[in-house]
Model the fold of this input.
Amino acid sequence: MCGIVGYIGHRNAVDILIDGLSKLEYRGYDSAGIALYIAGDLEVYKYKGRLQNLADKVEPLQLSANIGIGHTRWATHGEPSDVNAHPHISYQGKVAIIHNGIIENYAQLKDWLIDEHGIEFQSETDTEVIAHLIEVFYEDDLLDAVNRAVRRMEGAYAIGVIAQEEPDTMIAVRKDSPLIVGVGDNENFIASDIPAILNYTRDVLLIENDEVVVLTKDEVQIYDSLGQEIERDIYQVTWDAAAAEKEGYAHFTMKEIHEQPKGLHDTLHRRIDAEGNFKFEHIALDKAMLEKFNRIYIVACGTAYHAGLVGKRAIEKLAGIPVIVDIASEFRYSEPFVDDKTLFIAVSQSGETLDTLQSLRYAKQLGARILSIVNVVGSSVARDSDDIFYTWAGPEIGVASTKAFTTQLMAFYMLALHLAKIKGSMKDEEYNQWIEKLATMEQLAADTLTIDAQIQKIAAEQFNNESIFFMGRGLDVDIAFESSLKLKELSYINSLAIAAGELKHGTIALIQEGTVVIALATQAHLYEKMVSNIREVKARGAYVVAIAQEGNRAIEDVADDVIYIGACDNLLTPLISVIPMQYFAYYVALQRGNDVDKPRNLAKSVTVE
Ligand code: F6R
Done:
């Protein structure tokens, strides 16, 4: 998964490409490059390392061009290096290409290009075959050459192409990788994601699978897979470019942690109508459909999967429908109990996670109705769904998911209530009480944000540990999993999360003098059990940091440190108990000198398997 951007127009493409790529670095950042048409030739500048490295190298050259393509990479085929960086140029220098995705049959295509055309490959990438294929097929018509190349390609791709002999044209193609077009005045853009072009235009065309786009500076033509030109309505971006900037915070991750009260507010309040009921613009699910379903499947990856774990408990408790939660990369290769009596819920911040998208398509084939909880409007997951719950977290740029997670939780609570309501299994009074409880959570989240000094202190004491354990019971286990993932990805500390009751079945062997255990103990009905588990690890020398609801002073007798969150209904604690854990991961990572917004080896949007 990589970021692509392209420009054709009247301004200097160099500035626009570098600026656009800076908004896409979340998609990958191990190398970056640009290709420009300058005075009759295609010139490529590409380097291993962050975008800043590329910017520093091209700035003194004072390059100027009106058409160009740019790329920020997350390596799949071939290590991060100058030569494997994109753009890739074809064997005679006639075509330059950027690509996000994977060409699954690249090895066969490569053999064919070597055997039949004697082409020498420069890089280890799958992408290079696309550049050569297009040049092999090029006979004075770039669109025809791209179409012929695409017919030979299998896999997932969003590509951008420019050609030496057609300097007034740029071509882009989408198959299973995100692609949008920005429409400007005497200028047009392509990009993997909207923030890349938002400084220049708010008029966007969302490109669908198997579509080919031909851009000149004053025209955009979209063709379907049969070569028929199609009309597409402009999507007007209403959110602000500033929403994708840091606004004074040191990191996007910190800014996004702080945006959680607003995310909770927006997700909830935009859906409440004048009578105080939920009203979902993109959900058509009704009583008749719901009566048909005998189970719900929730499928997602990483943090979104953890939201699904909480979602299961919320739906089962509030709506009384059995729920199975699965990891998308497992689900898509399993034989699930999915049929036309299944409601399938896909959860994804980006809406582009390949495993989630393919799971959704698999469930659809098996007859399920698809509802997605998704943050990015118009993303692939959203477009392939029957019902959509947009989370309204706003753009999430930090690679580690924070505000998307809490809005996904909010979405699940709301959906659970909605399902109960349409099923007729919950009285109006109870339904209204739950909505009131949900409405108090944004303030509790804001209160939780004020405890950062305490967490910073704990992080400063614990950042040198080789491993940190998390444990909990009930909903706290789900948040233990999420807390552990956050710590791993930001701090690179080895971390394990377990159901506290499982300690004695093996993991307690790892506990010794000084081992740090973070014990989530927010669930009143499981509190005594948690205290026993805390005593068990304390007896083996562990240093215990507990998370508890305010008012629970007794826990101070067993834990070494206590972090208090506001008192609320047991079912809703995940909305706030995760916040100190996000802070903890952030501050530990800072102490260790890590790049918090762009942790090593990761990318924001995982559009490969
Ligand atoms: C962790 C994280 C990842 C994502 C996962 C799914 O902080 O960000 O685990 O949650 O890659 O991504 P989406 O939600 O975009 O499908």
About this structure: The mean pLDDT is 94. Residues 301-304, 348-350, 353, 356, 400-401, 485, 489, 605-606 surround fructose -6-phosphate (CB under 6 Å). Residues 177 and 516 are 41 Å apart (CA to CA). The chain has 18 helices and 25 strands.
